[in-house]
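Protocol step 4 of 5: obtain the predicted structure for the target chain.
Materials: sequence only (see below). No template structures provided, no constraints applied. The aim of this step is simply to have a reference model before the mutagenesis design in step 5. Sequence pasted as it appears in the construct record:
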Amino acid sequence: MEPNQRSAKRELVAYVHNVSPVKTSGGKKKSYFDMQLQTENDVVRGVCFASTRHADFSTVAEKKSPVKLLNIDFDKHDHTSVLMGGTVQLHEVKASFAATTIPTSVNVSSLAAVNDKQIVSFKAKVATLSGTKRVDTRNGVKRKAEALLVDPHGGVKLVLWEDFILQVKEGLTYTFTNVRVRKNNTNASVSVSTPNSSDCTIEECKPFTEPLATPAELPETFTSNGKS
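Step 4 output (structure tokens):
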């Protein structure tokens, strides 16, 4: 995600949660940190490209104070990630809604309680992996595959897009970082998807030592309905 991937300037009232350490973006050597912004009706991802503002965001997150954010942009690809630079302003305000607890990581069974489009991280085994197909999206034709993920608590479908498809193999266990939750209110289904414009990573890790859920035990509500 780059600072020039922007829409019109906006403002937002939110609680700041889970501010990350300052990171470096790939080969472009851009410093940034991210966080979760809890608004009245949603939880969205915030990314700040000014490392000098890290202390400001960490302070309001620790105080659990609602803030009005000025001089922000929304990512033009997914319209849910909030982009900020050195000119972002944070003003403590009163809010008509209370702060909630947002965990930095979840297990598969707790995804049903997570907000739609929320960015989450978790560990799971790839139980099955489909073949790749090409689908039409609003951003053109994309390669897509689906995987069934399981952990000791349950299972969920993961929709993999483009280069992420080659990053997983059936039977191996991974840490999935910054994947997006997708919910279908029509049939109460839940899935997760690799976003097309965030710092999503998939890294192989040690297998679980506990018994895992099997497909026969998985709830029917965990069905695939992911979008990029």
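Step 4 remarks: Residues 159 and 226 are 6 Å apart (CA to CA). The first strand starts at residue 10 and ends at 17.
Proceed to step 5.
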